[in-house]
Amino acid sequence: MNPRARHWTAFTILAASTLATGTGFVLFKASVLAQLPFAAGESTWFISAHNLVPRFAVGVLLLVALQGGRVLQLTRREWAQAVFMAATSFAGCLLQNDGLQRTTAATTAFLTQFYVILIPLWWALLHRKRPSLVMLLASLLVVAGVAILARVDWHTFRVGRGEAEVLLATVFFSALLCSLNWPAFHDNRSERTSAAMFLVEGGLFAAVSVLACRDSAHLLAPYHSPGWIWIMLAAALLGTVGPFIFMNRWQRFVPAAEAGVLYSFSPVIAALAEIALPAPLSRWAGIDYPNQPLTFALVIGGALILAANVLIQLKSLAAE
User: Fold this and answer.
1) Residue 101 near residue 44 (C-beta atoms within 8 A)
2) How many domains are there within the chain?
3) Which tens digits make up the pLDDT trace of 44-74?
4) Domain residue limits at 78
C-alpha cells in the first residue's frame, strides 16, 4: 500500500474508532450508574477502578481467543511500549473517572480536549520544531467548539479537585497518544502490545479496587446484575477494546497532532448519542439517565470541531 492510500485508510479507521469511542462515553456513564446501587458507601476511587477492570479483562480475553496464547509473547521493546501505554492510560482513566464524579460531564468533556493543544507541544519539544499555524488554528477551533458544546459557564467555572484531576488526566492521555507514533515502537506488533497493555492495566485497576474497597462484597455484587453486565460488555467492546486495538495498529500512519484533532470529535458523537440512547438504557437497566435534547450549542460546537478536521485534511492534501 502506498503512503497516500495508507494514510487515508488509517484516517478512515481512526474516524470509525472515534465514532465508537463517542458512543462508548454514554455506555461508560450508564455502567457507572448501574453499578452505584451495588457500591453503597464506597469511594469514587473504588467505583472508578472497579468499573474499569472488566473492560480491560475483556480485551485480553478477546485477543487471546482470536490470536491464541502467542499474543502475550512480546519482545523487550514491545513490553516497554505496552507498560508505558498501560501506565499512562491507567493514570489518565483513573483521574478522569474520579474527576467526572466531582464535576460535570460537560466540564470534563471540555477540559479533556486540551490534549489537542498538548500533543503539538509534546512534538514541538521532541523535534525542536514550532507547531504550524494551521495546527494551532485547528487546536483553537477544537477548544472553542468543545467550550460551546459543553456550555461552559465562565462565571461559575473554577478549577477544583475534579477539574484539576481531569486536566492532569489529559497530560497522561496526550503522552499515550504521542507514544503510538514514536519511531522506536514503529515495528512493534500492535495486537501483542494491545494485549499486554490490557493485561497490565486491568491488573492495576484490580489492585486499586481491592485496596480501595470498604466492603469486599461489593467486588462481586455488580456481577449479579444482568443489566450491568451487558452494558459493561458493550462499553468494553465499543468504547475501550475496539478503539484501542485499531488506534494501536493504525495511528502510526497518521501524525499524532492530526489524530488528536480527529479524536476531538468524540464529544460531538457522545452528545449526539445522548439524544436517543440513555432512555432505552435506563428502561432496560433500571437507571435514571434521561435523553438530552438537540441544542444549538451542539450544532455550532460540532461545526467548529468539524472545521478543524477539514482544515487539517486540506493541509494534508496540499502537501501531497
Assistant:
1) yes
2) 1
3) 889 889 998 998 999 899 999 988 889 999 9
4) 3-130+156-254
